[in-house]
Design brief:
The chain is an alpha/beta fold and 210 residues long. Helices cover 30% and strands 25% of the residues. An eight-stranded mixed sheet has the order 1-2-4-3-5-6-7-8, sandwiched between helices. α5 links the parallel β6 and β7. The longest helix has 12 residues.
């Protein structure tokens, strides 16, 4: 296995009034094959991606991975969220994050709450998104089938078979033109925490096709 370099940092996004914390992993040697941005749900943070080994797994697969703590959560608590919880955030938010961190074109991994950030960005800035990995994100019902059908970005829809929200989001996200689905058996809403090995295999297999 290749060696991995881990680091921490912060990024200033104008709309938030205070820096956002992130953790980063990348291969020690050579240029990364692609950049991956990991978002998180309301009860979670970048710490979860570190704890279950996703940051390390992505770096060993040759990627540069950045796990962001979203505004008002994790170690970004002093940063002001651009909208109240559950409302769609401006696409400009993730656009600025990706510009500041030189992530474009980026693979976005987006569980649960983070759908409020990732979906507007995906729909408004397709050329900046290399691939999309939604994990039972919220707010999928706020867009039409036609809007989803206009998206050509390669997408891996992941959810646990014990998660009703995952089934709801699948119904909407299955309108995305270029998608495949992984259903994780016996897993709940944070399916990646319930079965990290299956999650990592599904993710790295998908990334290898890009």
């Amino acid at each position: 296995m290749s060696a991995v370099e881990m680091s921490e940092g912060s990024v200033q996004v104008e709309i938030c009034k205070a820096p956002l914390f992130y953790r980063q992993s990348q291969p020690t040697a050579g240029d990364p094959k692609m950049s991956v941005l990991l978002l998180h749900g309301i009860r979670f943070s970048s710490q979860n991606w570190l704890n279950i080994g996703t940051l390390e797994t992505l770096a060993k697969a040759g990627c540069r991975a950045v796990a962001l703590d979203l505004p008002e959560l994790g170690q970004s608590k002093s940063a002001k969220a651009p909208v109240p919880v559950g409302e769609l955030a401006p696409a400009a938010f993730l656009k600025e994050v990706c510009e500041q961190l030189s992530l474009s074109p980026v693979v976005i991994i987006s569980p649960s709450l983070s759908g409020t950030y990732s979906l507007p960005f995906l729909l408004e800035h397709q050329p900046l998104v290399r691939a999309y990995v939604p994990v039972a994100p919220i707010c999928t019902e706020k867009f039409t089938a036609e809007q989803y059908q206009s998206v050509k970005v390669p997408t891996l829809i992941v959810y646990g078979d014990q998660d009703t929200l995952g089934e709801v989001s699948l119904r909407n996200l299955s309108n995305l033109t270029n998608h495949r689905v992984v259903v994780m058996k016996g897993a709940g809403h944070p399916c990646y925490l319930d079965d990290p090995d299956t999650w990592h295999k599904a993710l790295t297999d998908f990334l290898s096709t890009l």
